[in-house]
Design a protein that fits this description.
Mean pLDDT: 80
Shape: globular
Subcellular location: Cell membrane
Main location: membrane
Keywords: Cell membrane, Membrane, Transmembrane, Transmembrane helix
Helix content: 55-70%
Protein name: ComEC/Rec2-related protein domain-containing protein
Strand content: 5-15%
Oligomer: single chain
Distance between the termini: 66 Å
Number of strands: 10
Order of helices and strands: HHHHEEEEEEEEHHHHHHHHHHEHHEH
InterPro entries: ComEC_N, Competence_DNA_uptake
Length: about 525
Amino acid sequence: MRLFYEGIVANLKWGVRILWRNIERRGPPVCLAALGLWAGLGLGGGGTLQLGFAVVFGAFAVSWVELCAAAAKRGRILLGALCAGCALSAGVLRFQIQQEAVPGAVASADVRGLHIDAFEGRLDIDSQTTARKNRKLELKVRALEFVGLNFRVRCEWKRPAFSQFLLSGAGPRLSAGTMIRAESVRGGDFFWVDARDIKRLEDARFFARLRAVLASHFAQGISTAAGKAGPLAQALLLGVKDELDTEFKGLFQEAGCAHLLALSGQHLSIICALVTLVGRRIVRKEKRVRRVSLGFAWFFVWLAGPGPSLLRAIFMLRIAEIGKALDRPQSSFALLSCAAVLLALLAPSSINSLSSIYSFSAMAGLMLFAHRFSGFLKPYLPNSIAQALSASLAAICGTAMVSVLTFGTLIPASVLSATAAAPVMLAFMWIALSGGLLAGFFPVIGHITAPALELLQTVLTSILAFGASLPAIHLESDMAGRIAACVLIALIIALIYAVPWLQWRNSRRTMEMLDAKNPSLRARNRFPLFEPRKE
C-alpha cells in the first residue's frame, strides 16, 4: 500500500512538472492571471483570503526565482500574473460586498420602525416585461426616502449607491438612462410600485435618447418584416422578450437551448458574419471589412445592451483585431483570458453572474474539445455536420458541471437540439436583420420576408418540441450527489483527452519497434517526398 501511494505521489509530481514546463514555455501570462481571477472568485468570501494568498505566494515566488539558479525570468512573470489575478478577484469581491452593504442596511430599517416610501435613480437597462405582463425596473439608486410615525427622512448620494429591482404594473417602455422617482413603494419579498406612482424626473442623455430612438425604429422594422415571427426576431436581435409567449420561452429551456434565446457571442458572430459577407462584396479589402464588422459589433452591443456574454465576445474581437494590427496574433485562450480580466475591471458586478459563467465555460469548452470531437466525427459524418455536432458537444462539456451544480439538471438532448436549430437560427437572424433594416425604407419587403420567417419559426418550434420530449437527467438536491456527478463528468472529459494521447503513444511505440527490428530504416529518410531528386 505504501508503494502504491508513493507511486501516485511520484506520478503527480511528474505531471505537475510537465504541466509547468509547458505553461512556462508556451503559456501567456494573461492566462495565469485569468486562472487566479476565477480561482479567487470560486473561493468567494470577502476577498481577504485571496489578497493574503496573492501577497504571501507572490513573496514566495519572487524568493524562489531569485534563489533558484535554474529558474527563468519567464517563470517569475507567470507567477506574478497568477498573484495579480488573485488580487483582482479580491478587489471584485470587495466591490460586490460594498454594493450589497447598503441594501442590507436599508432592509434593517424596518426593524427600527421605518419603511421605504420612495426610490430615486437612473434606469440601468431598459424596462422589461415579466411573464405576468408586469414591468421589471433595474434602478441605480441615488436617493431614498424613509417614513416613520411622525417624520420623514431623505438620504442622497452624489453617485449611484446600489442597484435595486422594482416591479410595477403594465405601462410604457422606459429606456435606460431615464431618471425616475418611484413613490408609495410597498416592500416584502420584492418592492412593488404602481404604474401611476412612477414619475420621470429628467429624460435620458443624448446618446441614451438616440439609442432609444434607433432601437424603437429598428424594432418597428423587425415587426414589419417578420409578421407573426416578430417577437422571436426582436428577442434574437434586440434582446426584447416582452411580447414572446411564455410557453415558447419554456420550450427553449426544456430542450436545453435557452442560450439560443439569450443574446450571446453566438448571436454576435452570426451578425458579424452577415456584415462580413456583405462587406466583401462591396469593399473587397479584408482589413477594412474586419474593421467594419468590428464597428457594427460595437454598435449592436450598444443598441442591445452590454450583457456579460456580449461584452466577452466584443472584448475578444477587439483584442484579436489589435493583435493582428500589431502583427502579434494571440491564441484563443489568451483572448478569452484578456476578456475575463477586462470584464472584471469594467463590470465587476457581473463577472461572476450565472450568464457570465455560462458564457466563459461554454467558450472554454469550445476551445478545448471542439477539435477533439471533430476528429472523432469527421470519418463518419460530412464535414459541416461533424463541425456543428462537435461544437454542441464541446459546449455541453464546458457547461455540464455548471448546470449540475446550479440546477441539478443535465439535458444531453440539447446536443441534438442545438445542432439542428443552429442553421435555422442562422437563416432566421440573417433574414430578420436584413428585412428589419430595409423595412424602414421599403415596407413592402415584409410580404417577402414574413412568410419565410414564419416558416423558419415553425421549423424551430418543431425542433425544440422534439428536444423537449427527450429525457433529461435530474439529480437530487443533495450537494454530495451533484459533486459526485461533477467528478464523473471530469473523468469523462479527461478520457476525451487521454484517448488521442494513448493512440499517439501506441503509434510511437510501434515505430520504435520497427526501427529496432530494421536498423537499416534509421539511415533512410522517413519522408521520401523531401529527399533530393536523383538526376
